[in-house]
Write a structure and sequence with these properties.
Blueprint (H helix, E strand, L loop, with lengths): L25 H10 L4 E4 L6 H15 L4 E5 L3 H14 L7 E4 L5 H10 L2 E4 L1 H10 L7 E7 L9 H12 L5 E5 L6 H10 L4 E4 L14 E8 L3 H23 L13 H15 L7 H25 L2 H16 L5 H7 L2 H12 L7 H12 L7 E4 L3 H13 L4 E4 L13 H13 L4 E4 L14 E4 L6 H8 L8 E8 L3 H29 L24 E5 L6 H8 L3 E5 L6 E2 L4 E7 H9 L2 H12 L2 E7 L9 H14 L4 E4 L2 H18 L15 H10 L6 H11 L2 H6 L2 H4 L7 H10 L8
Parallel strand pairs: 1-6, 1-7, 2-4, 2-5, 3-4, 5-6, 8-13, 9-11, 9-12, 10-11, 12-13, 14-15, 17-18, 18-19
Antiparallel strand pairs: 14-16, 16-17
Length: 756
């Protein structure tokens, strides 16, 4: 690569790079050179050109391996299209060879675009689905780029794709990029393992080769004092919280009863610990059940406290109304109900009512001062907050003060807020860049990756204890000219603690990366357990003739990942019946233990069993999990299992986890398709119910009657008419029907229907 580097110091000149499109920066060249030698994790602050580095490596790989193609994965469609624009501008390739693939394209169109492209920007879930469906493979991909690589944990598609790529590609090379992989050593190691990282390149604003190209970012924090009314409400919430924390500390679930030292993360960890403990019992002791109820209540108290401190009375009021609704419901949390009807709750509502006509939070006045002080022609500002309600509030207030402001939130519907579609997000960002808006009020969706050039001011309206999010927020400014970051902090609150925590974690992150870089370089693969193959390893061929239909909702599960590893061709479909179909006769309903328990409670498992039995000759249920205890009576679980096997004639296979489940499915596919020569066919149509099945369905619609009781009633009375004419005493002669249920059946057949 060196022969391309030094022709013109103003611009980088490399293979397949358009002249004059990349400003020469030494650190980018050094990182690109390093990334060509091994699978590399690049950690570089936002705005310093990670996409440029990817384009440089792409150009070289395509120049040397002209038979191959490069793929860049990004988490969202807006990012995918943004990278497409950049790559088309930089790479000296015909525009029809540089394309984007997202779920918006049909499967047939995606396969066509894949075949004719040399460079593809795409979303990971789309690639995973297409690989599973066998629409194309990764054999000819000579560079796979993972943008926002900190996501490569758990069941995120990056993990599946990386493993598949290393196993399948003829000449694999991985480039992973992120502004921050996180501050926990185990997580960073996991990312490196999952992406087969052999080399780490880290830079920050103070790195010697980066410093000449960095615009200064001035960070200033503004302390905001809460008035006496805030302090009174806070004291009330803290007193209630500490009363319950003291109980939990005595039982060993938390280390401190001091509300200021306990974070939501600590409570969630305590809940996970308790839930694991409860699984050891068929019927958990009452004290454990009460501990869990208390922890659920404390979670709500901590959230209420955070809303008050960081967002103000308007957010707390909305949350309190929600809690009041929850407390009115049957079976609501006992501790919540006690607090909602307490004197303390009434006092909080009174204080909020008195402050209703005033500014919702002291931060708002401070924010208006900051915006006024920084107002000048062409200035663009992003305000970050954690809550959509606060986005709406700030947007309304800023409009009233004459600012051209837009909200920028995610897609998911939250309560009354419908969110923004990706197209709407793109339109708002485009208008912001053009200067049609002065201010963007955004949630976390604007923190990651989206290019916001020339943003002069970033305001942290509230804070998060996350190094990743701190780095991402900060990186929205200081790209092409000096930028400013203002952090609003409510004094003496979690707001303050979170800010300092994020700074500590950022510092810790660089120490961890430096240590891992040395470890990988000196002892490659030993500590991280990374094994990168040196020659092409195709997907296992012995199962390539086997096909399995899989319901679309199962595509994100580990079971499907395991099937693909076994070489099975998985065909995604919307299945009306079952989760997996291996032949025209055999279909499988897969249940995790948790889902199985819930399906017993809502009787869904028996409805599914009836449909399975009517549709396929040999239906199966696979129950996946290690323990029988599910926080419910063992008799209920055993009764449901026996009913499936005896009443419905459906075999139940118990597996320990996804790997074993996949093995059973592979074995069934071999038996059905190879040995029995049965064809693979989805049976969505359901044959007409027999009169006996109609009778059972009718009776099972009555609350409290399952299939077993319905059959007992019909055996006793023979017809629906005779059951309808029976009096409660006669109905109670049937095993399993008590006085209350007999009364329900009696009334159901005699109640006069009244149309609403």
């Amino acid at each position: 690569m060196e022969r391309w580097l030094f022709k013109d110091k103003r611009y980088y000149e490399g293979p397949l790079i358009r002249e004059g499109t990349i400003e020469y920066r030494a650190y980018q060249v050094r990182i690109a050179l390093s990334a060509l030698k091994a699978n590399t994790l690049v950690v570089l602050p936002t705005g310093l050109g990670k996409t440029i580095i990817a384009a440089m490596v792409m150009g070289y790989r395509l120049h040397e391996e002209d038979w191959g193609k490069c793929v860049m994965l990004t988490p969202t469609r807006p990012l995918t299209l943004q990278h497409l624009e950049t790559l088309r501008r930089i790479l000296k390739l015909p525009s029809d060879e540089v394309n984007a693939i997202t779920g918006a394209l049909s499967p047939e169109k995606r396969a066509e675009v894949w075949r004719r492209s040399k460079v593809i920007s795409m979303t990971p879930q789309t690639l995973k689905n297409d690989l599973i469906a066998g629409r194309y493979d990764l054999r000819d991909v000579v560079l796979l780029v993972f943008d926002e690589a900190h996501r490569a944990v758990g069941n995120y598609p990056y993990v599946f794709i990386a493993e598949r790529y290393i196993r399948e590609a003829k000449d694999p090379l991985i480039l992973a990029m992120t502004a921050s992989p996180g501050s926990e050593e185990d997580k960073v190691k996991t990312i490196c393992r999952n992406l087969f990282i052999e080399n780490i390149e880290v830079r920050n604003e103070n790195s010697p080769d980066v410093r000449p190209y960095v615009q200064p970012i001035y960070v200033k924090w503004h302390m905001v004092d809460l008035d006496e009314s805030f302090k009174l409400v806070k004291a009330t919430l803290v007193a209630e919280l500490q009363r319950h924390l003291k109980e939990l500390k005595e039982r060993g679930y938390v280390v401190s009863s001091n509300a200021s030292k306990v974070r939501l993360k600590d409570i969630l960890e305590a809940k996970a610990l308790l839930q694991d403990k409860m699984k050891e019992y068929v019927r958990p002791p009452k004290e454990l059940v009460w501990d869990l109820i208390r922890l659920n209540y404390i979670t709500r108290l901590v959230h209420a406290l955070e809303l008050l401190e960081a967002q103000g009375f308007h957010a707390l009021k909305r949350y309190m109304l929600k809690l009041e609704e929850l407390a009115k419901r049957p079976g609501s949390n006992r501790f919540l109900k006690e607090f909602v009807y307490s004197r303390s709750w009434i006092d909080i509502k009174r204080i909020i009512a008195l402050k209703e006509d005033e500014e919702p939070h002291p931060k708002i006045g401070e924010l208006l001062k900051i915006l006024k002080a920084n107002a000048r022609e062409g200035t663009r500002t992003i305000i970050f907050t954690n809550y959509r309600d606060t986005v709406d509030l700030l947007t309304d207030i800023l409009r009233q003060h004459g600012y051209r402001v837009a909200s920028f939130i995610g897609q998911a519907k939250r309560g009354e807020s419908k969110g923004l579609t990706q197209r709407q997000q793109e339109e708002i960002m485009r208008a912001f860049k053009k200067g049609e808006y002065d201010v963007l009020v955004a949630t976390q969706v604007a923190e990651e990756g989206i290019d916001v050039a020339e943003c002069d001011l970033v305001v942290f309206y509230d804070n998060v204890p996350s190094a990743i999010r701190y780095v991402q927020r900060r990186g929205r400014t200081g790209r092409r000219r000096a930028g400013k970051v203002v952090v609003l902090i409510a004094r003496g609150t979690r707001d303050e603690a979170y800010y300092w925590s994020s700074l500590r974690k950022r510092k810790s992150m660089y120490s961890i990366l430096k240590k891992l870089k040395y470890t990988i370089a000196s002892r490659p693969g030993t500590e991280l357990g990374i094994k990168v193959h040196t020659e092409y390893q195709p997907v296992r061929k012995e199962n390539e003739d086997l096909l399995v239909y899989v319901d679309n909702r199962e595509l994100t599960t580990e079971v499907v990942n395991e099937l693909v590893k076994q070489g099975i061709r998985v065909i995604p479909r919307k299945l009306e019946v079952a989760d997996y179909v291996v032949s025209e006769d055999v279909a499988i309903e897969r249940k995790s233990l948790k889902d199985f328990a819930q399906s017993i409670i809502d009787l869904r498992i028996f409805k599914q069993a009836r449909i399975l039995k009517r549709t396929y000759a040999t239906p199966l249920v696979i129950l996946e999990g290690k323990r029988l205890t599910l926080g419910m009576r063992q008799e209920a679980i055993l009764g449901a299992l026996i009913s499936l096997m005896v009443d419905y004639g459906i075999p139940v296979i118990w597996t320990e986890g996804p790997t074993e489940t996949a093995r059973y499915i592979v074995a069934l596919a071999k038996r059905e398709q190879r040995e029995k020569k049965r064809r693979l066919r989805i049976k969505g149509e359901r044959r007409p119910l027999t009169l006996e099945e109609v009778q059972l369905e009718m009776l099972s619609a009555i609350p409290g009657i399952d299939r077993i009781l319905a059959e007992r009633l019909l055996r006793m009375f023979r017809t629906i008419r005779d059951i309808a004419n029976a009096d409660p005493e006669e109905l109670m002669s049937v095993e399993g029907i008590g006085e209350k249920l007999a009364g329900t059946i009696y009334e159901a057949f005699r109640h006069r229907y009244q149309a609403s």
